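User: Can you help me understand a structure? I only have the sequence.
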Amino acid sequence: MARLKRAPRIAIVGGGVGGLAAALALERRGAEIVVCEQLSPLSDIGAGLHLSPNALMALRALGVEDAVIAIGSESDFLIIRSWKSGRIISRMRRGAFRQQFGAPSVTVHRADLLDVLRGPLKTADIRHGARCIAVEECDRGGLVRLADGSEIEADIVVGADGIHSVVRQSLFGVDAPRFTGCVCWRGMATAAVVPRDIAIAQGAMWMGPHGHVVHYPVRGPNRGAVQSRGVIADFAGSSGALDLVNFERHQAKLRVAF
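Assistant: Let's start by predicting it. Here is the structure, written out as tokens:
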């Protein structure tokens, strides 16, 4: 591509964490940004995310590290327990990560992280309800075709549209994901409804046969009543551990197992 004498126009397909991070980085380099997100602007989409120190350093480069730490939760330890007795098997100190790696380890809610990434954007055109159905080459560079019949021309098209990426399919053809045999169910609850005998201030992994349960706080303790501190509980295991067709019918098996 010849050197442009104007700001490049970049279309980003997907307005999730990757798409908004790319938008923020490219806008700060002077690019004209259009973000196409197929979902309407809804709150609390998604669940918890664990951000390790290298992720925090990437957010530092974007200028939003402090904002992410402020909306997230830091814990001193990651505790691994026995599913059967509750005995502590291992306790990894995460509170020393700042000294060891130059950044902390933080857990956040995905929706909160998206708000932080979206906040500093000044000129980016974020279009909700803009579902990409195809990407093609054109004289300018790339052409994004949307489900409503409209088109967006750009010098560069960035695919940030997830595992079922239309951008990837347009470039390389149909490529179905391969099921590994493992599955994870996720849920979120306010801290007030968690039984008092479960310590939620520190993240914990309860290891059992063919699976494990993880819980961790996703919001800091000073967020107020509206956005109260939450806890994520994940169950992950092999497909043989529980019937994947109807999880609700088998919640009793999960309770017995853990």
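Now, to help you interpret it: The domain at 76-94+179-257 is CATH 3.30.9.60 (D-Amino Acid Oxidase; Chain A, domain 2). The longest helix spans residues 17-27. Let me know which part you'd like to focus on.
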